[in-house]
Specification:
Number of helices: 5
Strand content: 35-45%
Distance between the termini: 32 Å
Helix content: 10-25%
Largest sheet: 7 strands, mixed
Radius of gyration: 20 Å
Length: 380
């Protein structure tokens, strides 16, 4: 039996468990015990602006940082002379011998706000040419001709200077992601991929390739409710152990989207969390954003949230809702990574990813969770 080292942080007289770091330590233990370690890439993190990997496109290679997003369908970067694009680094096809359009176009729309940068959740979109070119995932052996989108128009993505597009890793069965394609071409041994998302200052990782079956056996597998997105039934919602399920109203499902850095809930739940939990602890709301003392004597009222899905309970400690919590000195104020939208929709963003390791098995329409608590509710 593998002895798992728990990564526990002691700060200001309190212990906090960083679940993603526990999981990653477990992967290291697998390596020590079995001589196995999954292939992985360190992710670039920018707090409110997601997690990124670097890809290379074409020969000669042009380099782009793209956001890893399990809520988007397709890999895309901005194309030369992209209209309305707030993206500086754009792909130039001049002199690229392998660049080849297939004559079709595509529009990627975002309905439920899978990204912190969207000014209006209902309007964010991009569209462009579908074309193939040589694509490499920098730091890995993945290097192949891949069909993707080169955006000629985008709206609602005020990207940072570091970001040039999105690597779509949704459950949409109409699209093949880069890991599926690489697996079919024999470059990697599995098309399953995983995310270890950690708050700063800890490192986040993208896992891929040679997953060992002992690691798979340690996961709790949950079936997605459809074949378009990573969508999961929410059977129960607990806040500090009290049942708040009735306030979900029509929000019976949660969407697992790594492009969203925060937890997105409906207006009713947002107000409950704000008025019943954050305000009593001395927090304030400025321009729709909640700010709280990172450390205070009233943090017992801060909300610890549990989503009870089929097969697994996902526990989100309040520290996972606070940006820069682990880097904040005494007396500092933390922004709460909690948002609401105009729809009865819940988006499992960064705070959920920080609470569990997620492993995505698109071929079998399921996600494996490490760090959750097994329950008896069967998959649909």
């Amino acid at each position: 039996m593998i002895s798992i080292f728990l990564h526990i942080i002691f700060v200001q007289g309190q212990y906090f468990t960083n679940y993603s770091q526990i999981g990653y330590q477990y992967l290291k233990d697998l390596n020590d015990y079995y001589g196995y370690y999954p292939q992985n890439l360190s992710l670039i993190s920018q707090n409110l602006q997601g997690w990124f990997v670097q890809i290379g496109i074409g020969y000669p290679t042009q380099y782009f940082n793209v956001q890893v997003d399990t809520g988007s369908d397709i890999l895309w970067v901005a194309y030369q002379n992209c209209r309305n694009c707030n993206i500086r680094n754009q792909y130039n096809s001049k002199g690229q011998s392998q660049f080849q359009t297939n004559g079709s176009v595509y529009t990627q729309k975002y309905y439920y706000g899978v990204n912190d940068w969207y000014d209006n959740y209902d309007e964010a979109e991009c569209s462009g040419l579908i074309a193939s070119d040589a694509v490499s995932l920098i730091g890995s052996q993945i290097n192949e001709t891949f069909l993707m989108m080169f955006a000629t128009y985008e709206s609602g993505f005020p990207f940072s200077d570091q970001c040039s597009g999105i690597m779509g890793l949704s459950n949409n069965q109409s699209f093949m992601n880069i890991f599926q394609d690489s697996y079919q071409n024999g470059q990697i041994s599995s098309d399953v991929f995983g995310l270890v998302i950690s708050p700063l200052p800890f490192t986040s990782y993208l896992l891929y390739g040679n997953f060992y079956y002992y690691f798979f056996d340690s996961l709790i597998w949950v079936t997605s409710e459809d074949t378009q997105s990573w969508k999961f039934s929410i059977n129960l919602l607990l806040i500090n152990g009290i049942d708040y399920t009735q306030y979900m109203y029509q929000s019976n499902y949660g969407y697992l989207a790594s492009g969203e850095s925060c937890l997105v809930v409906n207006a009713q739940l947002f107000n409950i969390l704000q008025y019943d939990f954050f305000y009593p602890a001395g927090c304030s709301n400025y321009d729709g954003i909640i700010y709280c003392p990172c450390w205070n004597d009233n943090n017992a009222s801060y909300p610890n949230i549990t989503f009870v899905l089929n097969q697994v309970d996902i526990n989100i400690p309040y520290q996972s809702l606070f940006l820069n919590f682990y880097e904040s000195p005494p007396g500092d104020v933390c922004q709460v990574c909690l948002k609401t939208n105009n729809e009865d929709i819940i988006v499992f963003g960064g705070p959920v990813f920080q609470s569990v390791i997620t492993v995505f098995d698109k071929d079998n329409n399921q996600v494996g969770f490490y760090g959750g608590v097994q329950n008896d509710i069967p998959n649909s």
